[in-house]
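Before the break, one more example. Copy the sequence into your notebook; we will annotate it together after we see the structure.
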Amino acid sequence: MNNLTIKDLHVTVEDKEIIKGIDLEIREGEVVALMGPNGSGKSSLANVIMGNPKYNITKGKIVYKGKNVLELKVNERAKLGLFLSFQYPAEVPGLSVSNFLRIAYNSVNDKKISVIEFKKLLGEKMSLLKIDKSFSTRYLNEGFSGGEKKRMEMLQMSTLKPALAIIDEVDSGADIDSLKIMANGINLLNKQNKMGALLITHYNRLLKYIKPDRVYIMIDGKIVDEGNHLLAEKIEKNGYKEYKL
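Here is what the structure looks like once it is written out:
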């Protein structure tokens, strides 16, 4: 089984422990939500999974498709099928959306795709996500609104078709129309490609459109609760006050 399994993970940044021994699993094709207030370590976990060198792993392991993810380079993790949708995507002046996505596609696939073939593929994905075709000629995230940046992340995910997507607060700053389009894209990829997903958020807004199989609650670097989608609804109603010491 192509599960992502995290066991007793401890992580520090500048000698401060920010992830304090968490256990978490995402089964193949499963949608898991990771909820918690700001500063609880959710985004840090996403960065650790994808290999951000800022984070120092002091204990524990992350296993995916039978491999120790922590021993792999960032590009090797991507080729394994892992994908991170950033909370704050960077602007890259001079690099068009189309060229960026074609380079990324060829870098994670053994079979290279021609410019003509990729243009057709990208057009299909943009139509699916209701993105205007002129979007592909713009420079990557330059001058994009918050909602456009989120759509760009979804377009990238739809084009690359990862086996497991880590989606870091994609609902932050998105208007309701963008939110629905993103949710539809995630649901479609989950249904068609059996894509697993870790949805990182601190409230239930996105989860109204994507029903997670399981929900984890993270507080102060620790997993403090686990349940089904009803747990997310409980958090929306009551907040995190019952978990805070």
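The chain has seven helices and twelve strands. The chain has one domain: 4-243. Try to locate both features in your own notes.
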